[in-house]
Amino acid sequence: MSIAIPQELIERLAAARRVAVLTGAGISAESGIPTFRDALTGLWARYDPQELATPEGFARNPKLVWEWYAERRARIAGVAPNAGHMALAGLEQRFEQFTLVTQNIDSLHQRAGSREVVELHGNIARVKCSAEQTVVSEYAATETPPRCRCGALLRPDVVWFGEMLPAAALARAEEATEHCEVFLSIGTSAQVYPAAELPLRALSAGATVVEINPERTALSRHAHFVLPGAAGKVLPALLARLAAIA
Ligand code: OAD
């Protein structure tokens, strides 16, 4: 089933110098990574994400939280970027400025070849000291979780519920959002702030806002264009239409 992409959208993209993109867990779904709210299937089904992805949850049960991220890290190591990630890497080449802001922590955009990637929620591949907040690349896994040289526990370098986003990443995301002509919101339920604020700020800054998601979300009624399909299908079609006219 081919995806209907309005000609008006293609023309606005063809005329754009700067494009900003916000992706969420939905773009990694076709790589086999459950979206965030499904990630607690099976073994983890009995836990609430707010239980595991929070500083309080880590303080209460550091071993459980460390093991949950270790399992997710292992699952991510075994998957590959999908056609949606690849199409975004292809789209990046077609614009003077293309800023890919992601809420995902799985490195799949970078593995697909995207270069200008802004990670709002950190990256599961990195660990940091829970006291000094500095990224640690080598550590002795003598206990679970391992400890920093300072003695504090190490933790995943991801943003947990209730934590601040990395200031530099958020500033880059906001700058791209305020100055783009087209903003694509892809595979996100647009529920978690401040990331969910970005498409609305693009809208008020005068950008054309496009949503790509098989489901409707809180953003749908605000977007100029809603493409109701899977990212792995819609994005390659978008890239092909753009290549055909430029
Ligand atoms: P969610 O799980 O909230 O939403 C995933 C969205 O992807 C839903 O709207 C789905 O309809 C959509 N979707 C599913 N399959 C898709 C596909 N093949 N193509 C396109 N869209 C598809 O995930 P996020 O919106 O990313 O933070 O959640 C935002 C944040 O909530 C996450 O970054 C997470 C959590 O706080 C961390 O893990 C740090």
Bound small-molecule species = 2'-O-acetyl adenosine-5-diphosphoribose
Structural class designation? alpha/beta
For the largest beta sheet, what order do the strands appear in spatially?
3-2-1-7-8-9
Query: Could you give the count of β-strands?
Result: 9
**Secondary-structure element order, N to C:** HEHHHHHEHEEEEHEHEEH
**Uncertain segments of ≥5 residues (pLDDT<50)?**
none
> What is the averaged pLDDT score?
94
Rg to the nearest angstrom? 19 Å
Number of H- or I-type helical stretches: 10
Shape designation = elongated
Share of helical residues: 25-40%
Kindly report how far apart the N and C termini lie.
25 Å
Strand content: 15-25%
Largest sheet: 6 strands, parallel
Describe the model.
- It contains ten helices and nine strands.
- It is an alpha/beta fold and 246 residues long.
- Helix 8 packs parallel to helix 9.
- The longest helix has 16 residues.
- It is elongated and about 60 Å long.
- The structure holds 2'-O-acetyl adenosine-5-diphosphoribose (OAD).
- 2'-O-acetyl adenosine-5-diphosphoribose binds next to helix 2 and helix 10.
Concise overview:
α1 packs across α10, α6 (83-92) packs parallel to α10 and α8 runs parallel beside α9. This protein has 10 helices and 9 strands.
